[in-house]
Design a protein that fits this description.
- The chain is an alpha+beta fold.
- Helices cover 16% and strands 31% of the residues.
- It is built from twelve helices and 39 strands.
- Strands 22, 24, 27, 32, 34, 36, 38 and 39 form an eight-stranded mixed β-sheet that branches. Strands 10-13-9-14-16-17-18 form a seven-stranded parallel β-sheet, with helices on both faces.
- Helix 5 packs parallel to helix 9, helix 6 runs parallel beside helix 7 and helix 10 packs across helix 12.
């Protein structure tokens, strides 16, 4: 789940801007309220022109900056006539304040020469995880498979309940378990901004009795203990620093109609950086006001003096230039003050849906890869049709990816589908099992999971750097460089993977070995993690990337470029009838879902399998409720191994669509399991399914193709690409494979500028494809 919030946009030269509807995680946030007229009051955020550049928001300057900011804001407020504004919140990280004012006062503020913009302080509802209804079955449904206790890398339950599995699976996927032998995040403070939490949850108490959550603030105005979902806050805190002190039995979580786990299917949940301290900030419950988010960021930097801020929220606003909204303004000030900011890209799918603040180039934007053990344990994503085995490290179909307005792609990937996290039980509405009972665990996912896992690795990196650099902290730009330079290239396009999937062990080693430290391991650092090259159609554009050996031995680095060419493509249309097809119990509720299997062929030599499915998903009324039926699909390779599942996007749009990508697919006959709600609530009609096999091919020029680097040595690599002959963005990978056994990439976005001549409009040709 990814929290949703409106983003107030401040455009230079524009005094006031109407609030706009935003879309996050594939769900429409709805239209913003109309501005008040006459003397009606309205909640606004006022941004001043002077952002106090001579008093940066560092710890040493915090008091001076706060005094200057408050004075400047009070001066603006003092010019207002009429009733005194209420609910005034002064910010100092960004020179701005929020208040409740009359319409005439809002107009006066907009006309004040000291004011850059007056923006509505809007709110958007958070979409909480809903508690599943009681399990149901039908005589038509397939029986729930029984799962045995196993050990090893594909374990579902431990063979010995007294030796619980250590979760989340991401600890192994991103090599965090190995990294924790070098650093635990001790001495690092990480803040997250979400809904409510219980700081006294036993999974956040260290063995010595001390609290992981050392500071808990409520800026929502609801109170820290008011009713809340809690799923987001617990998921964030869990991914960062859960202690693994509590044993959770997954047999008490799963829906027995869908899967049966043996009693004693026990797990412990450990965070990526269990030594880190957490500053928990509640900015809302069902709502996150923009001003509460700003207040949270302000507090985290200027009062709590954190090292990392996790932001698992966002909005899709258009136009979206990361430098033009208030959250980006505050994030940029946080980064300037030495705080690393991690933002989730969103849960809107791969069709260029990256949301702000992840569009800000100064933050670390985290998209989602897959972990699939949780699906094997719960039976989610039609896992029952597999051979009981699963693959990881594919792109999550829900991950917001693609190109931003500024020609950027995600910075990196972290698992976002899906892993176990701590939850708060009966006191929190979002903490429910698939049996519909209160739960101390949750199957947490989305880029809301990717971000805190990344924040946890950032904490490891900061501690590791301090250990080997005399206590000095790395700048946020260096933290980002360390994470992206050591990310594992999954062999996928940059618009999906950025530099690749995060590698905690390599990042920690690189932090210890960074210039001025003690060399550990075999890693390289790259001067850039992504570049944007633009020019006229068919022009050659170039860039340079510097490569530094931060390993203990001389390394040979092979360079190259990559894009993809189609090997084959096949399309089939199949009839789907939710009222007559066989069914199986859905994992969360046990309700019957209709399914149908289709097959397709993947040729030998395929490096990437891209599938797309569409169906005419028009809304219809069922039992007096208007619904839009969805169709999901799950991909099984020729051996029957579960690979990935779709996350259909859209609502009333026609047709609806779903996309699934698989890296390095096996050749042979694949199976796609299509499924929808059984009966009248499901889909009946034709489903069109396309499978395209692609191979990786070079594109552009890179020189030198091979370079030798002694420890500590830096050399330059020159790269050039030709822009497309028609308007639009394309992505290319610049690959770096070292003799130390690691391969990573730099993402290149190549943009064709629409030509103009003598002030006349230019033109372009191409196909415009809609997103969410």
């Amino acid at each position: 789940m990814r929290l949703k919030a409106t983003l107030a946009i401040a455009i230079p030269g524009v005094a006031a801007l109407a609030a706009a509807a935003v879309v996050v995680g594939g769900n429409s946030a709805g239209a913003a309220p109309k501005a008040a007229s006459g003397g009606a009051s309205q909640n606004v955020i006022v941004v001043l022109h002077d952002q106090l550049g001579t008093a940066p928001a560092t710890k040493a300057q915090a008091s001076t900056r706060r005094s200057r900011a408050t004075g400047a804001q009070d001066s603006v407020l003092s010019h207002l006539t009429g009733a005194k504004p209420t609910h005034v919140k002064h910010f100092s990280l960004g020179n701005a304040f929020s208040a409740t004012v009359t319409a005439s006062q809002a107009a006066a503020l907009a006309a004040d020469p000291a004011v850059a913009s007056v923006l509505p302080d809007s709110t958007v509802s958070v979409t909480p995880q809903s508690a599943p209804s009681a399990p149901t079955t039908t005589s038509k449904a397939k029986a729930a498979p029984k799962v045995a206790s196993t050990d090893g890398p594909q374990a579902i339950c431990p063979s010995d309940p007294s030796k619980p599995l250590v979760e989340p699976e991401a600890l192994r996927t991103i090599k965090a378990t190995d990294a924790q032998q070098l650093a635990t995040g001790a001495g690092v403070k990480v803040a997250y901004i979400a809904d409510g939490i219980d700081p006294n949850n036993p999974d956040f108490i260290r063995p010595d009795g001390s609290h992981v959550i050392t500071d808990y603030q409520d800026f929502s105005g609801e109170g820290p203990n008011s009713p809340t979902s809690g799923a987001e806050a617990f998921g964030d805190a869990s991914g960062i620093a859960a202690q693994g002190t509590v044993v959770h039995d997954l047999s008490q979580f799963v829906n027995p109609a869908a899967v049966t786990l043996p009693t004693g299917c026990n797990v412990r949940i450990v965070g990526v950086a269990p030594g880190a301290s957490i500053v928990a900030i509640k900015a809302g419950g069902e709502l996150l006001p923009n001003s509460a988010i700003l207040q949270a960021i302000d507090y985290a930097v200027t009062v709590a003096h954190v090292d990392v801020i996790n932001q698992s929220f966002g909005g899709n606003v258009y136009p979206d230039n990361g430098a033009r909204n208030t959250i980006a303004l505050f994030d940029d000030q946080a980064v300037a003050a030495g705080v690393t900011v991690v933002a989730s890209t969103g849960d809107g799918g791969v069709t260029s849906t990256i949301g702000s603040p992840a569009t800000d180039p100064n933050v670390i934007s985290a998209a989602a890869s897959t972990d699939s053990q949780g699906y094997a344990q719960t039976g989610y994503a039609a896992f029952r049709f597999s051979n009981g085995k699963w693959a990881n490290d594919n792109i999550s179909a829900l991950s917001s990816s693609g190109f931003t307005e500024d020609g950027r792609v995600p910075d990196l990937l972290a698992p976002g589908e899906a892993d176990w996290a701590v939850c708060g039980g009966a006191a929190f509405s979002g903490c429910a099992s698939y049996q519909g009972t209160p739960s101390s665990v949750q199957l947490f996912g989305g880029t809301s999971q990717s971000a805190p896992l990344t924040s946890g690795v950032a904490a490891l990196v900061i501690q590791a750097y301090r250990q080997s650099h005399g206590g000095a902290s790395p700048a946020p730009a260096l933290v980002k460089q360390l994470l992206t330079s050591t990310a594992d290239d999954l062999g996928l396009p940059p618009y999906e993977q950025g530099s690749g999937r995060i590698d905690a062990k390599a990042a920690v080693e690189a932090a210890m070995s960074a210039p001025g430290g003690t060399s550990v391991g075999s890693n390289i650092l790259l001067s850039k993690n992504q570049v944007t090259l633009e020019g006229a159609p068919g022009s050659t554009q170039s860039t340079t990337v510097k490569v530094t050996n931060v390993g203990t031995k001389t390394q040979t680095v092979a360079t190259g470029t990559r894009t993809f060419a189609n090997l084959s493509s096949s399309t089939q249309t199949t009839a789907f009838d939710s009222t007559t097809l066989p069914t199986f119990p859905y994992a969360t509720t046990g309700a019957p879902w209709a399914y149908k299997k289709i097959t397709f062929t993947v040729p030998a030599g395929t490096d990437r399998l891209v599938t797309a499915m569409v169906w005419p998903g028009a809304p219809k009324s069922v039992g007096g409720t208007t619904i839009t039926p969805v169709v999901r699909d799950t991909l099984l390779d020729p051996d029957g191994t579960y690979q990935a599942n779709s996350r259909p996007q859209g609502g009333a749009a026609t047709p609806n669509a779903a996309n699934v990508d698989v890296r390095h697919p096996k050749a042979g006959t694949w199976t796609a399991v299509l499924y929808s709600n059984a009966g009248a609530a499901g889909f009946t009609g034709n489903v069109t399914f396309n499978a395209t096999a692609q191979r990786a091919v070079p594109n552009g020029q890179v020189s030198p193709s091979v370079l030798s680097l002694a420890p500590g040595q830096t050399k330059s690599v020159h790269v050039s690409f030709v822009t497309p002959k028609i308007g639009g963005d394309v992505d290319r990978s610049i690959t770096f494979g070292s003799s130390g056994g690691h391969q990573t990439t730099v993402a290149a976005v190549v943009r064709t500028v629409v030509p103009t001549a003598n002030g006349r409009p230019g033109h372009f040709a191409g196909t415009i494809i809609g997103g969410n």
